[in-house]
Design brief:
Layout (H helix, E strand, L loop, with lengths): L1 H11 L4 H5 L1 H7 L26 E8 L2 E6 L5 E5 L4 E4 L5 E5 L12 E6 L3 H4 L1 E9 H11 L15 E12 L5 E11 L11 E6 L5 E5 L17 E5 L16 H5 E4 L3 E7 L5 E6 L5 E5 L35 E3 L5 E6 L12 E5 L4 E8 L2 E9 L4 E6 L5 E7 L2 E8 L4
Parallel strand pairs: 5-9
Antiparallel strand pairs: 1-24, 2-3, 3-4, 4-5, 6-7, 7-8, 8-9, 10-11, 11-12, 12-13, 14-15, 15-16, 16-17, 18-19, 19-20, 20-21, 22-23, 23-24
Length: 418
């Protein structure tokens, strides 16, 4: 218990450390478009819709601002809602509620942001969640645990927030729902900062069962180049929150040892390709959205370089900064990419091995062909809704979450007649 308290105190400290250090750089770059896509470049130029949809859209269920989903081995589907609700969809279209969720701050882009079952879920029933917490809420909880009054915290800043990763056992009941048991936090975005954008907070498990986490720059661009903190990075930890021995900066400070790559703005999509390589897409500033091949220890340049001025191509380059790793593809107009998935099913055989990217403000579903290190955009289909997340069903169908201002939907994409 003492060790946990000490670790918590360490993680909570220093929320204002980078404010003065990054002030000049941040003021220059922070005034950019977030995932809402408020930019004059949205849906212009290279984002002209090409509608050759080879699928039928089947509306399945409705949810309240769904942010992420993940299939379980039995064919049920976990759906995370922004407000902090976790739902369990069943193939008979019944929807159960999972109880005992953590307290979630859902301001701005915050909320319950991602959900992922452990690779050995069938044995251990563990699931992983990412959500946003506030420093004030943590202090209130600590005060209540210690029998202290929370009145003294009435003047605390509510806006210091950060992403959290936790894991828990999923215990299902006979009513179609269930509860979380033994929830524990295994990672925190540090330091907590003001504002409610650019959290990242997406997760994907590697073939070796280590956990990769995307951590946005929290609209403090200089943080992406500060190796003493984990903002603007992709980090890698074990499934219990420890530092893998082969991390590129292991042996450094606690936060630096987590880092796998640096120089990221707002990475929202991560996925391993069939050949075992990790890819990532992120939202740029006023255009400049990118698809990156993630390489151990690499620096992707934000905010020193940005793809915003580059044409939509696989040859985006930063010739004056060879120390930075170039994106494999970039868009000069705003796609506003959300999730990333590699299709491996048989229902759409022509898609096998292709990457798919969802568009938020652009409301697109984009298919990318990747052969080795060569990348090209093959198709773009207008969906008429913000595409938040997607998953591949056991039958090879393509499942999509729409996240709109009026709510959200779960849809299934399949060839005609399937």
């Amino acid at each position: 218990m003492l060790g946990q308290l000490c670790l918590s105190a360490f993680l909570l400290s220093g929320c204002n450390v980078i404010k003065k250090y990054h002030k000049v750089v941040d003021e220059k770059f922070a005034a950019g478009r977030d995932e809402s896509g408020d930019s004059s470049s949205v849906l212009q130029g290279q984002l002209t819709p090409v509608d050759r949809r080879p699928f039928i859209i089947h509306e399945i269920a409705q949810f309240n601002h769904p942010m992420a989903m993940s299939f379980l081995p039995d064919g049920t589907l976990l759906v995370a809602e922004k407000s902090g609700q976790l739902k369990l969809w069943h193939p008979d279209n019944k929807i159960g509620v999972i109880r005992n969720l953590p307290d979630v701050v859902s301001n701005g882009q915050g909320g319950l942001l991602d959900i992922a079952p452990h690779p050995d879920f069938e044995k251990n029933h563990l699931i992983y969640l990412s959500w946003i917490e506030s420093e004030k809420l943590l202090k209130e909880k600590a005060a209540l645990r210690n029998g202290e009054s929370v009145d003294d915290l009435s003047g605390e800043d509510k806006s210091a927030m950060g992403a959290v990763i936790g894991r828990a056992e999923l215990v299902c009941d006979n009513k179609g729902g269930g509860r979380l048991a033994g929830l524990s936090v295994i990672w925190r975005q540090e330091p907590k900062t003001e504002g409610d954008v650019n959290f990242g907070a997406r997760m994907t498990f590697a073939p070796d069962k280590s956990l990769f986490i995307s951590s946005g720059d929290r609209s403090q661009p200089a943080a992406a180049q500060d190796m003493s903190i984990n903002l603007g990075k992709i980090v890698r930890i074990t499934d219990i929150g420890r530092i893998p021995a082969d991390n590129p900066f292991n042996g450094s400070s606690f936060l630096k040892s987590q880092i796998w790559t640096s120089g990221h703005r707002n990475p929202l999509g991560m996925a391993f390709s069939p050949d075992g390589r990790l890819w990532e897409n992120e939202i740029g500033q006023n255009g400049g959205d990118k698809l990156n091949l993630i390489q151990k220890g690499a620096n992707y340049g934000w905010p020193i370089v940005t793809a915003a001025a580059e044409p939509s191509s696989s040859t985006a380059t930063t010739p004056t900064h060879p120390e930075f790793t170039k994106p494999k593809w970039s868009w000069s107009t705003s796609l506003v990419p959300s999730s990333l998935l590699f299709y491996t099913g048989n229902l759409f055989p022509e898609w096998k091995g292709n990457a798919f990217i969802g568009g938020l403000a652009s409301q697109m579903l984009v298919r990318m062909e990747i052969k080795g290190d060569k990348v090209r955009e093959a198709d773009r289909w207008p969906m008429g809704h913000r595409v938040r997340d997607f998953a591949q069903g056991s039958d090879g169908a393509f499942w999509v979450l729409y996240d709109d201002n009026k709510g959200g939907k779960l849809i299934r994409l399949a060839p005609p007649g399937r």
